[in-house]
Amino acid sequence: MARVTHHQTDYPSPRPRGRLTLALSLSSAILGVALFGCVPTAQMPPTPPNILLIVADTLRADALSCYGGPTSTPSICSLARDGVQFERAYSAGGWTLPASVTLFTGQHATVFARDDGQKRPANRFYLVPPSEVLLAEILKSLSYQTAAFVESGVAIKPRSLQGFERREVNRPDVLAERHTEWARERNLPLDDFRDLQVVPMLRFLGEEVTGPFFALQWFKDPHAIYAPPTPWMEGLRARFSNLPHSLDHYTRLAARDDPTRGWIDFEARVADMSTRELDAVRALYHAEVESLDARVGSILKALDEGGLRENTFVIFTSDHGEGFGEHGKFFHADRWLYEEFVRIPLLISGPGISRGQRIDAAVSHIDLVPTLRVLLGLSPASSDQGQSLHALLHGQSDQAKRVQYLVATARDDGFAALVDGRYKLILRPQSAELFDLVADPGETRDLAAEQPDVVERMRARADALHAEDRARRSRRLAAIDEGTVRQVGAETLRELQALGYLETGDLDGENPPPMEPEP
């Protein structure tokens, strides 16, 4: 079995970086002790490894071919062949904001939730305060290049990307101005605006990397609307030529800028849609997944061509899943915690990682930061609430008791889920559902009334975790500047409205906005 060999190595001194200016005279190790509580250990890799994190928005695990899905996704699934595939990986919640927070903090999103009890909607969201020092900031202080290329501004709004020195929201107009000529000179495809959105990462990997890096590519696809690029769309037209409407009509479902065919219209008429129409909607989603795979492939090719792959940890995941009516719900939202909304892919490859392993242990986003600390030779941090996957990645036995706690909303209103072994408990303010995921992976049979002892045991565990989160949160709320809260809150809500989480008018109303589409 492959193993990683480490020995002590000195990293370069930190570069100037905003609020750590006073510590610049310290060495890297002292800086870590003083500010991070997380320092290079005696087992530093001889050459600092790179990290490439790829996140797809709204991608169910079972959409990928390596998870048994109906799509052709050879590029994404090559990471499973070259590394480790986690079969039971979970998002931190059923929507983007908690996932973004947990992915980059290694803590439950509820630690950073803000709900001061007022009715103004801008007080209901997640926000990571500047006092929280994140992994990207540590690596930046150790002379890593840190760059984040994000296709949806929602991922940035909680301020969980602190430490990424370069942060770009890939707007089509800006991309066209900055990158079209470069892409054409290299004969890169530019048939669809999404081809251009991946170019900044390709340029970074191809021309701008000068040392170790931590890079993030956050794709918006396959988030609704499901409108795959032309080659995939044309392939579907013949297959779905006998629908009540043209196929283009179904690409507009969930588009907030078109109220006649937007989210509410779809929810209102879904009961009258034929099986054939619903098949078309799913096929459009799967076509977007396949088109996403092509763009992921271009990134992996750039890694290979730059000679970077051998020393790069590549992580592929998604922020949450998507519903297609399994529990009467379509799309996704914050209170929906069934498997189709929270089961996500997690594939990790890189130096020393076992190849072709499939791991059945329940893991989640919260485990990623602790894992990266170990892989990079950094000491654990007391703030981490997850557990490192290091042993599993290296083919070793893992003695950790892995219980995954998933949060639903930023409102602290009793919606959560707990995965413990074969059981999953979904909690609501006045009720609970219990499922045996081994015997009933589709969550069709609620066992809460039959096994009250299991419910109470798991509820007690969930209550303990929630109490820990509340204690952590109370220590952090004072660190959040109120002006920042108001500004970021309004910006976040506008983004959420554009993506369909909020109704028009919620930004100005006195009542708290629903953070999910009305059923």
Structure characteristics:
519 residues; alpha/beta; Alkaline Phosphatase, subunit A; 8-stranded mixed beta sheet; 4-stranded antiparallel beta sheet; 16 helices; 16 strands; globular; disordered N terminus; disordered C terminus
How would you describe what is shown here?
The structure is a single chain. The chain has a single domain (18-37, 47-499), classed as 3-Layer(aba) Sandwich (Alkaline Phosphatase, subunit A), CATH 3.40.720. Helix 7 runs parallel beside helix 11 (275-305). The protein has helices at residues 28-36, 74-82, 96-105, 135-141, 172-185, 193-197, 199-208, 230-237, 247-251, 263-269, 275-305, 339-342, 368-375, 390-393, 452-477, 482-499, and strands at 50-56, 84-90, 113-114, 125-126, 145-150, 166-169, 213-219, 312-318, 323-324, 330-331, 343-349, 357-364, 403-407, 416-420, 423-428, 431-436. The protein is of the alpha/beta class. Strand 13 (403-407) and strand 14 form a beta hairpin.
The beta-strand count equals 16
Total DSSP helices = 16
Strand proportion, as a percent range, falls in: 15-25%
Low-confidence stretches: 1-44, 116-123, 499-519
Q: What is the CATH C-level name?
A: Alpha Beta
Q: What is the average per-residue confidence, as pLDDT, rounded to a whole number?
A: 81
CATH superfamily: Alkaline Phosphatase, subunit A
Count of structural domains: 1
**What's the CATH topology label?**
Alkaline Phosphatase, subunit A
* Major beta-sheet overview: 8 strands, mixed
Q: Which sequence of strands runs across the widest sheet? A: 6-5-7-1-8-11-2-12
Class from secondary-structure proportions: alpha/beta
Q: How much helicity do the residues have? A: 25-40%
Which CATH architecture? 3-Layer(aba) Sandwich
What is the global morphology? globular
- Report, as a whole number of angstroms, the end-to-end distance: 51 Å
Rg for CA atoms: 22 Å
